[in-house]
Amino acid sequence: MSNKFCVSITECKKDGDMATVGFVVANAALGSEKETMVFLSADGVWSAVKGEYEKVNEGEPFAPLKELVDKFVAGGGKILVCAPCLKKRGLDGTNLIEGATPAGGAALVEFLDGGTPCISY
C-alpha cells in the first residue's frame, strides 16, 4: 500500500464545494500519516491565491476553505499549483499563499509514479 496520497482540485471560484471537500479529504489523508500532495489546476488554482481562498465558505458542516488550507499546510501537506493555469488567469505565482508552489504537469506525474492513489474534485 502506498504511503502517498494525491488530491487533484479543478474547481474553486465556480464551485467552492469542490475545493472545500478536496481539502477535507487531503487533511484526512495527512491524519492517516500519508505524504499528501494537493494539485490545483484550472479554476482550482484560486484555492491557493491570497485574497481569494479566504472568500470560500460553504457553511456547515464544513470549515471555511482558508482554515482547511492553512491546516493542511501546517500539517506538512504539499500544494502544487499548475503554472500554465496560473498564467491563463493572469497570475504569476507571486500572490500564492505560503506553502503553495507553481509547478508543471511533470511534477504531478512524478508524484504519482509508482501507483500513488489520486482522487479528483
TrEMBL record:
Family annotation (InterPro entries): DsrEFH-like (IPR027396), Sulphur_relay_DsrE/F-like (IPR003787)
Record's protein name: DsrE family protein
